[in-house]
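Holo prediction. Input below; ligand is zinc ion.
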Amino acid sequence: MLELETKHEQCTICKHEYTSINTEVMPGIKIYVCETCLEAAKYHFIWVCMSCGQVYLRPKKLVIERVKDVELKRAYMLCEDKQIIQGIDMCIACDPEGIVNYMDAQKTATC
Ligand SMILES: [Zn+2]
Ligand SMILES: [Zn+2]
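Structure of the complex:
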């Protein structure tokens, strides 16, 4: 049997791959991301709910197109070719009321 040198953890995004790649989504909070999901992060913004663990993927182009807020749009555009995985405090599944502002752009992107 081969001994693995590095610690492998379950991928936070897809929850079936094991990986040693990790990233900080919030100060002090690390998540593990496998190569497949990291690849997906090139074309999608990925949000991970820190409260329930739900993962949201949204195509970057769609998100940027739908954002009305100029500041936010600029911020998103700067991220267009970066791999962005962000932690959010709660998602629409945890708090349908409180999330309205946070997820507004993403919500419209789905319909
Ligand atoms: Zn994965
Ligand atoms: Zn949640």
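The longest helix spans residues 100-110. That is the main takeaway for now.
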